[in-house]
Amino acid sequence: MPDPGNRPSHQPGHHLGQNSTTGAPRQRITVRTLVPARKTSSPAPLESASPLDGLPSLRGLVAFDVTVRLGSMTAAASELDTTQPTISQRIRALEEHLGHPLFDRQGGRLILNHYGETFHAELAGGLGKVCSAVTEARRKVHKPTPRITIAAGAGFAHVWLRPRLERLEQDFPDCHFTLLPIDRDEDPQMQQADIAIRFGPPLTGDHRDTLVVAERAFPVCSPDYARRHGLEKGLDAEALSRITLLHLDMRDTRWLDWATWCRHAGLPVPRLDKAFPYNNFPLTLNAAVNHQGVALGWSHVIQDLLDNGSLIALTPHISRDRHGYRMSVRHPNSAVIQPITRWLTREFSGLEIPGPSRQP
């Protein structure tokens, strides 16, 4: 019996013979050592190249452009506030970056070669656009905001101009507007305003005074008040005797009051002791809108209230020669002011109220 201690060792890769105990043929086994496969690293993703990566120095491009435009490095150095050697170095660096000379150097002379001519033709337009973009950006940042003062009568400013102020600011976003409600023409602020809108006849000796809307005055009331008092056909002597007149208590001959309006309309002057007085025009209109009586209205002020149905216009209409809203412009040739006055004139153009009118 073989000595167990002398049993042959089983080595990897060796073939084994018969079984030492039973004498039966041993199973033939081949042992292989498996070596783990190496991990193959995936290639690093390529970074997207920036379009700016291949650009040379902007200083070099500018030095080349100015040198070609002025014809010498010395002149270019003077314009760029630097030295001639600096210009030369920048152009040399540009040529090295491009891999080709831009000039033929003949002694002390520089002659633009064909490559330089082609490159400059393509470069000049691009630099011009860059300069324009920078100039425009700086202009927007450093440009002062124009402050425009518009002075107008308190009633007109409140009823007509103030509702349009937001649209005016939207159409002229670079301007800052100040609205001054002033009823006295002799007020210094009215005279010093950039744009003054006043009512009445023309001012003596004021050549800047332009009529923008002729006067047209007529009675107004709410549709409900007109129905309840049978005023659909207008005012006559009988109607004047039974309605409530809303009276604007202003000692200003520029404006029509009920007595003056009735004389111009050929109607008897009613007893004004029954007229309810108000001390400003917006309050008078508000009372008419709220069915409290009949007020005098002017087409240039109440257009919006007529358009939205808050008020209706009664006949007759009265117009006085040379009376109306007039616009004075302090600096009529200003490039800032002119578009604004055109804007206001267009707004005024829609204020004429159709209907029969009487000239006094």
Task: Please tell me about this protein's structure.
There is one protein chain. The longest helix has 29 residues, at 114-142. The chain has helices at residues 58-70, 73-79, 84-98, 114-142, 154-171, 188-192, 223-228, 237-240, 258-265, 281-289, 299-307, 337-348, and strands at 103-106, 109-112, 147-152, 176-181, 195-200, 210-214, 217-221, 245-248, 276-278, 294-298, 312-313, 317-318, 324-329, 357-358. The termini are far apart. The chain is rod-shaped, with a radius of gyration of 47 Å. The chain contains twelve helices and 14 strands. It has 360 residues and is α/β, with parallel strands linked by helices.
Keywords summarizing the entry:
360 residues, alpha/beta, Arc Repressor Mutant, subunit A, D-Maltodextrin-Binding Protein, domain 2, 3 domains, 5-stranded mixed β-sheet, 12 helices, 14 strands, 38% helix, 17% strand, rod-shaped, disordered C terminus
- Radius of gyration of CA atoms, rounded to a whole number: 47 Å
What is the structural class? alpha/beta
Number of domain modules: 3
CATH superfamily of the largest domain: Periplasmic binding protein-like II
Order of helices and strands: HHHEEHEHEHEEEHHEHEHEHEEEHE
List the helices and strands and how they pair.
Elements: H1 58-70, H2 73-79, H3 84-98, E1 103-106, E2 109-112, H4 114-142, E3 147-152, H5 154-171, E4 176-181, H6 188-192, E5 195-200, E6 210-214, E7 217-221, H7 223-228, H8 237-240, E8 245-248, H9 258-265, E9 276-278, H10 281-289, E10 294-298, H11 299-307, E11 312-313, E12 317-318, E13 324-329, H12 337-348, E14 357-358
Parallel strand pairs: 3-4, 3-5, 8-9, 8-10, 12-14
Antiparallel strand pairs: 1-2, 5-13, 6-13, 7-10, 7-11
Helix pairs in contact: 1-2, 1-3, 1-4, 2-3, 5-11
